[in-house]
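User: ok so my PI wants both of these folded by tonight, can you help

Assistant: No problem, let's get them done. Here's the first:
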Amino acid sequence: MPAAHLPDRSLIRIAGPDAHDFLQALITTDVAAIPPEEARPGALLTPQGKILFDFLIWRDGDGFVIETESGQREAFVKRLTMYRLRAPITIAALPDEGVTVSWGDELSGTPAVVDGRFLKAGIRLERRPGRHGTGAEADYHALRVVSGIVTSGDDYALQDIFPHDALLDLNGGLSFRKGCYVGQEVVSRMQHRGTARKRVVMVSANTALPPTGTELTVGGKPIGTLGSVSGTSGLAIVRIDRAGEALHAGMPILAGETVVTLALPAWSGLTFPVAAVEA
C-alpha cells in the first residue's frame, strides 16, 4: 500500500447550523451532493469566474472540512470570514500537519476520505489528516500526472484560469444546477455556449520532459504551458482547438525543443476538436 505524506496541505473546518447553506451559496461544488466519506474538488471564484482558491471538501459531523494548499489557507480563511457576516457558523484552521494519501489494493482501515477526482480515473486513493506514511511524495505526484489531475501552483496560477480549464465541470467540482454562487453567471454562460477552449492534457515524450513552465508550441505559436512533470510524462492546460488543428494537420507539438504527444484524460470524455480545420 503506497502512502505519502504531503506537508504542503492544510485543513479548514466549517461548522454550525448554517454551514451547508453558507457553502452552497459560495463555492462551485454542490455541497448537497457530496457523498459520505468522499472528498470532492471545488473552488471559490472571483466575480469574473476565475479560480481564486481551489480545494477538496468533505463532510465532517455537523460541518465540512476543506483541504487546500498551505500557502492559501490564511487568505482563504479571511475570505470565508468576510462572506460569513453574522451567519451562525465557525471557520477554523485545523492543527494537523499536512495530509497523508494512500492508494493500492490494500488500504488502511483508519478513518479517511476517498478522493473523488481519482475515482473518476478508476483509482481509489484515500486522504487522511496528519502524517501516516513514509512513501515518496514524488510517487503521489507521478500518479496524479498519469491520472490527469491538476492543482494550483503545480499546474496553474490562481486567478488565471476558469474552472472548465481545470476540468472541474467534469470531475464533480462545478455545479450548474444548485443556483447562484460567486462567479456562477460567467461559468454557466461558458457551459451553455460551449466556449471553453482550454483544457487539461496529458503530455508525453520519448525523453525526459523539460521543466515546469516550458511553453508548448505549434509552428512557433504558443498553445499552453507545461505544468507538473514526472520523467517523460506531464500535464498542461492548452488550447485544445489549436492542438486539434495541429494533430489533424500532422504538425509537431513542442515543449521547448522536445517533441511531445498530447492526450486528453480518458475519464474526461473529451476529444480534440477538428471542425475548424475541416470547414
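One down. Here's the second:
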Amino acid sequence: MTRLLREYEKVITIISVLIGSLLIWEIVVRVFSVRHFLLPAPSAILADIFKNWDVYLQNSVATLEVTLTGFALAVIFGVLFAVAIVHSRFLEHAFSTLLVSLNSLPKVALAPLFVIWLGTGMASKTMVAVTIAIFPIVIDTALGLRSIDPDVLNMANAMRASRWQVLLRVRFPNALPALFAGMKVAISLALVGTIVGEFVAGNAGLGNAILAAQATFDTPQVFASIIVLGLIGTVLFYVIDFLERKLVPWHASQRLSSGMATA
C-alpha cells in the first residue's frame, strides 16, 4: 500500500469521525431542546464563526503573534540552557534546580507579576508563554546532547576536534530528534501560556474573546474561540512535524514511519 493512499485513508477517517461527532451533537441538542446558553448546536457555532470571521481572524493573529514569539524565545533560551547544562556541572545544578522550581509553580500565579513588571502589552503575555514552554525544550535537548555513542566522541577527540566542533557537528545533529520532540510539546504549551496571559491582562486575542463572551453568556462565541484555538494548535503541531520529517529524515523514527507507509 502506497504512502499516499495511507495518508488519504487517514484524512478520510478523521473527517468522517469529526462529521459524525458533530451530527450526533446537533441531534442531541435539537432532540432534547438543550438551552442555547448551556450547549449551542454546532450549526450555531459555525454560523457565529462565519458571521464574525473578521473578529476571529483579528484575535487569532494577536494570539498567534504572542504564541510564536514565546515559542521562539523558549527554543533559543532552552537550547542555550541545555548546552550550558551539558558542559558545566555547576550550571547543571543551578539551572536544573531553577527550572524544576519554576516548572512546579502554577503559571497563573506568575502572570500577575509579569503584568506588574512588563505592563499589559505583548511582553507580559510572551513571558508567560516562555515560562511554560521552555521546560520541555531544555530537558529534551539536554537528553539529546548527552545521548552520544562514546565511540563517536572518542573518534572526534582522536581527530583533535575542538569543543565547539564536537558540539556543532556531533552533539547538536544527534540532539535534533529530541529537540523536535520537545518543540512539539512546547508549541502547545506556548499557546496555553498565551491564553493564560490574555486571561490575566489581555486586551486582544482569543483568550480575551473567551472572557468577553463569558461575561455576556455568549456560549457560541466561547465554543467558536475554543475551536479556532484547537485549529491553530493543530496546525502549529503539524508544521513542526513537517519540519522534523524534512530536517531529520535519517532518524530511526522517520525511517520506520516511511517503511510502514510503503509496506
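The domain at 58-252 is CATH 1.10.3720.10 (MetI-like fold). The longest helix spans residues 163-201. Good luck tonight!
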